[in-house]
Specification:
It contains five helices and no strands. The chain is an all-alpha fold.
Length: 116
């Protein structure tokens, strides 16, 4: 079995078994991706290790599945793989920056109920 087939099968299993994340599947996927060594493969490996802990499963898995398909499709060029890498890396938290919580621009005390 080729590495491309293995990658496709492993990411498909993760998607089908969600929201449960099987860490053995993640470890095997990371091993195959790191052996690949291309920038997109390394980015996918980084993100997939954080799914379910630092990165929401529902957000990450569809993007990871698309990125794995892009990585494995021999018809695509490095241009498409670079675009997929950029998309995947946007899922990574910014180091040293806590997530921001949305706050209203208007204080709640200034709101009044409309009477029609």
């Amino acid at each position: 079995m080729s590495d491309a087939t293995t990658i496709e099968q492993l990411i498909t299993r993760l998607v089908h078994e969600a929201p449960v994340i099987d860490r053995a599947i993640v470890a095997e996927l990371v091993r195959v991706l790191e052996a690949d060594g291309r920038p997109l493969a390394r980015a996918i490996a980084t993100v997939v290790t954080r799914v379910g802990t630092e990165i929401d499963i529902g957000v990450a898995l569809p993007a990871l599945a698309m990125a794995c398909t892009t990585l494995c499709d021999a018809r695509l060029t490095e241009r498409e793989r670079e675009a997929a890498r950029f998309e995947i890396e946007t899922l990574l938290p910014v180091p040293g920056k806590a997530p921001t919580i949305a706050a209203p621009d208007v204080p709640l005390t200034s709101l009044v109920r409309r009477r029609d």
